[in-house]
Amino acid sequence: MSTAIDIKNLSYSYGNGPVLKDISFSIQKGDFFIIIGPNGSGKTTLLKTISGIIKPQRAQLEILGQSIRSYTRKVLAKTIAFVPQMVQVDFPFTVSELVLMGRSPYLGLLGLEREKDIKIAEHAMAFTGVEHLARRRLDQLSGGERQRVFIARAICQDSEIILLDEPTASLDLAHQVRVMDLMERLKKEKSVTVIMVSHDVNLAAMYGDRLLLINKGKIVSMGRPDEVLTFQALEEAYGCTLLVDESPIGKFPRITLVPQKFSNSGPFEN
Amino acid sequence: MNPKTPFLLKRLFTVSFLLLLLLLGAMFLGLSLGSSENGVKAVWQSLSGAREADSMLTTIIWRIRFPRVVLAALIGATLSLGGLVFQALLRNPLAEPYILGISGGSAVGAIIGILMGLSRFPGVSFTAFAGSMATLLLIFLISSGRTILKKDSLLLSGVMINAFCSAIIMFLVSMTYDSRLHNIMFWLMGDLSTADISQVGILAASILPCFVLIFCLSNSMNLLLLGKEMAQTMGVNIKFVTVTLLVATSFMVSATVCHCGLIGFVGLVIPHLLRLLFGPDHRVLVPACMLGGGAYMVFCDLLARVLPEQGEMPAGVITAMIGAPLFIFLLKRSDLRK
What we know:
A: six-stranded mixed β-sheet; 12 strands; about 25% strand; B: mainly alpha; CATH 1.10.3470.10
């Protein structure tokens, strides 16, 4: 397999102290790659760097074997799609209008879409199961439906790489699984490289091919879920008591939070 | 074609066609009605150049009413489009050149130009443009602290800029003693009665390229509504699009301000109405605002000409009477939504 993303010596600061410190790693094509870490660890900044939103001064960032600097905006948009955390849209767009926006990098000077673009958009809506909502307005959707609409928009960009920033945050359980299953299908059926930032270590354990754990802007570890999600690494990164065992449904770790009232007794003491 | 996804081009043409009819209808009304009463048939004869046409009426229509109606249409188109662009750039449905104080800034520039005795074009146009750019810069300086993009603070700073501009205008007016005073006062309130065809031609030639430019950027405006970061990841050159739109819009608005003074709320009323009717897609809204805004302004100017028993009132009075209550209504509603 070849490399989708290759990062060398990435550092970034917002002004008051560095957010990312000398990060180097690479992501293989076709992986479901999940970045985890506590709040303020630099996950989102890392994702924004890969998407090209943030441009660090000194760092080597290669996408599909080419430096990100050699990409024009439109070509980059055709290569990487980005699904941010909940976007506030104050204007009454319909679902199909929003999904069609994903075709923008392919449109001509006047920005008018052709029949082909509509076909692609309808296919994307069917893929994420929102085609019955096509004419509904965005503000009439539930959180889960909204998220799938934004993912359909990203699919429309027809890119080899899709980035998602906490797509399951604030969704109920059924919608969390639905979104994750969707990304898994996207990876398998369309061989898209999925790169996701997540707060949910259990979802990361179940779906991730490879995980990256970062803390305070530095890489803690990277590898298969069972390599990264060890009890020591997690407790140190998140600073709380945890129990890690094997999931009853498969060969991957299961993480259980241990509340304060149980943490001083029983088998949880280290 | 799948009925689920309305095809954009079809919608674009339908909407444009309907609004073009509306505009032509309004213009025909504008040409027909006025202080000298004539039947529709006589007007039609004059317009179509028929042999039995009344030559007096033909002169009135082509010399007096025609430039004025075209000027009104251009102004309406410019102001609606200006409102639309600012609403997209600031992601704020209540933004508008007049409310933000940009019209006020260019009015200050224009009055300074008039008092310096400059000709209307290019002299006064230039000082008006400088005035609007100065206000724009001021708004961006104030808003560079990020928080200003919230609705209320942006509108508040607009109100303050407007108040400041009014004070400067009043100061300049109070220093003027001669016959220019009446002209300035009338002009300030949005007066279209001074239209003459060569000036209207120059205005059209200078703002039509802006219309085309803005239409080419209309899809980028759609994407900007999702936020700068999202737009960027979909291939939009944020800096280029923002600067181009701001400069083109300020240029258009100041060009119209030096012809007709301050006409407010057109940029608020028309985009809102059209968004309600045709949805928020800018590729439809940009041509719709041009045509619909033109029709609206022709209509408002017609009311301003026809309503008073004697003489006429400035068109800005009519647009403000319709627009200001609507603005309050929209502000109230957006509060309720939170």
